[in-house]
Queue: 3 jobs
Job 1
Amino acid sequence: MPEKKLTCIVCPVGCQLIAVQTDNGIEKVSGNRCKRGWDYAVAECTNPLRTVTSTVALLNGELAVAPVKTDKPIPRHMISACMQEINQCAVKAPVRVRDIIIHNVLNTDANIVITANINATNPDSSVCL
């Protein structure tokens, strides 16, 4: 039975976990101090999810780029494809926190959202490309 060593990131304790996998799923998790460690190990071994953070080109803004992130975690194996989508995007300033620049990226139900308020150098340009 293969074992996977993990460090739990659910809380600051950082329990060192060992998850034992079988063909039927996770058989055993050791090293966790609470149930959240078990849940984290199972999720990490069966369907790992990540929040993606990046930047997009910002046109006519006080800065050249705007920070963005997924508004919910996406499957880890889709990060590269998500980054390709983000890298093709450019927005016009001004932008505000939680502005959605890509809806339902890669059919994951996650949106790519702006994470900072950035003003335009020319206030008349507020259209997203």
Note: Residues 125-129 have pLDDT under 50 and may be disordered.
Job 2
Amino acid sequence: MIPRTLLDKENGGDGDPLDILVLGPPAERGSIISCKLIGVLYLKDRGERDDKLIAVAADSPFDNLKSIKELDANFQGVSEIITTWFSNYKGPDMMQAFGFGDARAANKVLEQAIREYNTEK
């Protein structure tokens, strides 16, 4: 998750901080990871927005990627695995995936989540 972000329930979110999946080497829980956004997976969790930002870790095999399209071209099946996992990890029919947005869309989601956090304070 990204600290100081919020998917505000008043705006259709789940009321939690924004989640992020960083592709790269394993990291300890709570670590701060240098990464760049390449996309966003649009999800709903029982009707509430629960988007997942997709990023690549610096100094990893994914570091040169700039988009989900490049991820698919260079690492076939990874985006499908991400979608399948997030669509099913809470059980059948709990999560709905609505596809990926690009890096620009991911940054907009992040900016909105930062604004929503700051508005709540």
Note: The two ends are 18 Å apart (CA to CA).
Job 3
Amino acid sequence: AMNFVYLCGIGIVAAALCVIIRRIFPEGAFWVSAAAGVVILGAAVSLLAPSVSAFTELSEAAGIDGEFVKILLKALAVCYLTTLCAGCARDAGESAIAAKLELGGRAAVAAISLPVFTRLAELITSLIG
């Protein structure tokens, strides 16, 4: 909980800095925002690390294929990174690029998830046939 408060503090300070810097040097505000986004993302990933290991242990105990857990975690990482990058593009006033980044993120998640759908199709086929 304390780490999350730390993240919020970084976000508030970065936002205030952006407001101040934007008046003096508009392009600089983008870089402050992007840097804060990277720091916050890094901190968020470190917050998630214990959850990821607990999730992995639970899935192993439940007999869930480790490959499925890897796929889920990769898709989650793509989602977080896509959100960060699209937000940076929007902050830079490039909403069209942000939309393309989001489309690319969706495509990446679909590609990453393909083995799950393949396995599901095989399972359904074996149950039917």
Note: Residues 42 and 98 are 21 Å apart (CA to CA).
